[in-house]
Structure formats: structure tokens, C-alpha cells
Amino acid sequence: MSSTASVTSAQRRETASKTWRLLIGRSLCDLASRLSGRGRVTRLVASPIANTLEAIALGVMHPKDVDQMVCQTYQSRPNFYDPHRYELTYEARLLPVLVEHRPKGKMLDAFCGQGREAKLFAEAGYDVVAIDRLQWMIDAAKRYAKESEFDAKFEAADFARYQPLEPFDITYTSCWMYSTVQGTAARASFLTRLKELTRQDGLAVVSYVSGRSDGRAGVLARWLISRVVGAIAFGNRDIERGERIYTGLFWHHLPDEVAEHEVRQSGWDIVDRVEGEQMEPTFLLLRRATSEAAK
Q: Measuring CA to CA, which residue among 140, 284, 278 is closest to residue 203?
């Protein structure tokens, strides 16, 4: 057999592997979502089953499979993220604090979706450049900006590869985004990328779902199930406590002390915070640590 044929065969096996992991994970998550939507009385029984199914899905899938599932989820819900319907008050709590620390400047709105947050920041006086890796989201954001008559520049770009002409005064990452990054190493890369996109004296904003929103017993049970399934299925054997998959999206309910430790380890100082309750995002406003800024 030629080397070319061997490579092609290996690629087919790899593709098939990815496909079955994604299919199984997606199916389990869809079933879990249906169970979670049951009535109050039924939910007492259905909820533990749904949590177990989510934990199994998380163990079966590799991080790349999870990322693919998340993309599919976004594609399947264009109307859900329509800014005419998808209204959140969280950024309004953040805005006065942000203005206090940086009242004007050029802002990167990363993971901008369909432009809801870009509108808020543009109307507050910031010079907004907004990016999202999904082209259809950017197209919808441009239509929304024209219709709502606010000024922002929208570009289809991946946060990890985006190359602006110069760094920004403020780099804002959308609600909960830090909690949607799977794995310690990936979050460290995320924070390093923030430095590359933010001026030396600039401000960065990250937000996450606090671990305060989840019960300790449930966290431990899901983690143990995921770890066991990951080992048996040769899936993700690096599951961290607090990781979850629900509504077709990945979330990490991060303990506050973990989130704060990670940003400091990456060379950031926390200059302010806007704390959220339950599933509300907790925002951290960051500047480079003194030692970093001097470089």
C-alpha cells in the first residue's frame, strides 16, 4: 500500500472518529435539553438524568468536537440571537464602571454576534470595531447597525487570528465568553491574545459564569462521570470541575478564585469587577501588571 493511500485511510478514520463523537455528544445533549424542559414536578426526576447525559457527552467528545457542536448550535438559532429579541441588561451594569476607567477610545468588541453590544458601546461614544468568526452573524450585525443608525465597523474574523493595524484602547470580550473556553491552556492562550490586541496602557474586559451558581455535589458528580467516560471512550480525559454542556453550548462555572488566579498568572491586574448572581456574568476589568507594562 502506498504512503498516500495510508494517509488517506488514516484521515478517513480520523474523520469518522470525529463524526461519531460529535453525533453521540449532540444527541445526548439534545435529549438532556428536552428532559430539562419538563414541568416542575417531573424535573425533580428528569434533571439528574439530564445532568448525567451532559456529563457523558462531555467525556465522549474532544474539545474540537465541542467547538463544532457550539458552531452548529449558533447556526441553528439565528432568531434567538437577534438583538430585537435577545435583550440583556448585564452590559448596562458594566458600562458605568467601564466609562469611569476609560471614558473614550478605540474599542474591540470581540465575539460581537449580531451587534447588540456594539450598539451599546457605540452610543456611549466609543469607536467600535466588532468581530465574529461567523460571517452570517456579521452580515446580520451590519443590517442591525444600518437599521438602528449606530456607527461601528464589523469584520468577519477569528479572535485567535485577527490582525488589526494597531492595538486597541479597550478589548471587550462578550458576555460569559471566558467561561466558554475549554481547558486551562486554552484560557491562558485567550488571555495572552488579549495582550496582543490591547495597548500597553489599555483596558481589557473578560466575564464568566461564577462557580457560585452551581451546587458542589452536582459539580463533583458531573466531573467524576465525565472523567470515567473520557477514560473508557478515549475522549476528553482532561475534564475540569465545573465544566458543563447544556443548551448545546459549553460552559465552565469557574470559581472566582480560579478566574482571578488565571488572569493574574497571565500578567494582568484586576482593576475592578462587576459581580453577577447565579447565571449572570461576573465582569473583570483588567490592566497589564506593572511588570508587564514596563516591558
A: 284
